[in-house]
Amino acid sequence: QVQLVESGGGLVQAGGPLRLSCAASGCRFSTNAMAWYRQAPGKQCELVALITNEVKTRYADSVTGRFTISRDNARNTVYLQMDSLKPADPAVYYCTAPMPGRDYWGPGPQVTVSS
Q1: Which one, out of 1, 35, 85, 98, has a CA that is 20 to 30 A from the CA of 65?
Q2: 105: part of which helix (H) or strand (E)?
Q3: How far apart are CA 7 and CA 61, in angstroms?
C-alpha cells in the first residue's frame, strides 16, 4: 500500500523559507512522478509543483522563481523548498503520487505565513 508522510509544515514569517518533505513507501518511487498541491480556505486545490521520474519540473505561475521541487530517489523522498513566502501562500500542502488508476495523497501539513 502506498503511503506518503509529509513533514516540515508550520509557521514562518513573510519573506522567510520553509522546506517540506514527503517520504513515500509502498511504491516504485524512482519511476513515479511526484507533485505538491495546496488548498487554502475557500479556494480550489491547485498544483504547486511537479517533478517527473526524469527530474523535469513544472511550477504554478504564482510560485515560479520562489519554490523548488526536488527528489532523492535513494531516500524515496520529495522536497518542496519554499523561499520568499508571501501572505498568499498559506494553505494545506499535499504531497501526491499520481499513478495509473488513482492518485495517492498525504495528509497535508499546514503552512502559515505571518506578516
Answers
A1: 98
A2: strand 102-105
A3: 24
Rounded to whole angstroms, the Cα distance separating 16 from 3 reads 29
For 41-62, what is each residue's pLDDT tens digit? Answer: 999 999 999 999 999 999 999 9
Segment 86-110, tens digit of pLDDT? 989 999 999 999 988 899 999 999 9
- Residue 31: C-alpha distances to residues 9, 94, 112 (Å): 26, 20, 32
Q: Which phi and psi (to 5°) does residue 30 adopt?
A: -65, -20
What pLDDT sits at residue 101? 87
Sign of the torsion formed by the C-alpha atoms of 11, 14, 24 and 106: positive
Residue 22 in 3-state DSSP? strand
Burial of 39 (0-12, 13-18, 19+ CB in 10 A): middle
Contact 38, 48 (CB under 8 A): yes
**C-alpha cell read off for 41:** 480556505
Residue entry with cell 535513494:
74
